[in-house]
Recover the amino acids of this structure.
């Protein structure tokens, strides 16, 4: 760089890392499940007035007079989903350490070692992808990846 002639430099900022929901992350990894558009077109019931509408219209609907007037007479059903969610949650487990070895030149797919996780790394940079996956999905866990070089024996 020629600092005497340089007037200014621009640089693109880094990507903001956002934690995805489990459903969205599994869709990103496997390609199975509803897309964002399919989810936004689902029919949902407004919990304030009981009206049916597309999910995408719910935030605007809740500010409209039809919802505000409908709240006065609406009695919501008992919250059954709270009991179902409590039963569905897995028990808390402590932080764990996982050890893996991915040989240099490995061409196969690498699967996440955490039980119940469906993520796999078919990309070229398997070690980096697996570390990134752990940063985003398994915050409390640690992964240690040892590097082994694949040696081929040559018979002379």
């Amino acid at each position: 760089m020629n600092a005497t002639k340089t007037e200014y430099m621009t640089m693109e900022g880094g990507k903001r890392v956002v934690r995805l929901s489990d459903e969205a992350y599994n869709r990103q990894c496997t390609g199975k499940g509803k897309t964002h558009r399919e989810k936004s077109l689902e029919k949902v019931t407004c919990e304030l007035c009981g009206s049916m509408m597309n999910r995408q219209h719910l935030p605007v609907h809740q500010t409209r007079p039809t919802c505000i007037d409908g709240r006065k007479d609406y009695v919501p059903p008992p919250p059954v989903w709270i009991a179902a969610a409590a039963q569905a949650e897995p028990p808390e487990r402590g932080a764990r350490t996982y050890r893996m070895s991915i040989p240099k030149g490995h061409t196969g797919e690498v699967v996440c070692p955490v039980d119940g996780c469906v993520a796999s790394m078919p990309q070229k940079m398997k070690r980096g992808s697996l570390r990134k996956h752990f940063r985003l999905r398994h915050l409390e866990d640690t992964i240690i990846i040892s590097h082994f070089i694949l040696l081929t024996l040559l018979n002379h």
User: Anything to note?
Assistant: The two ends are 51 Å apart (CA to CA).
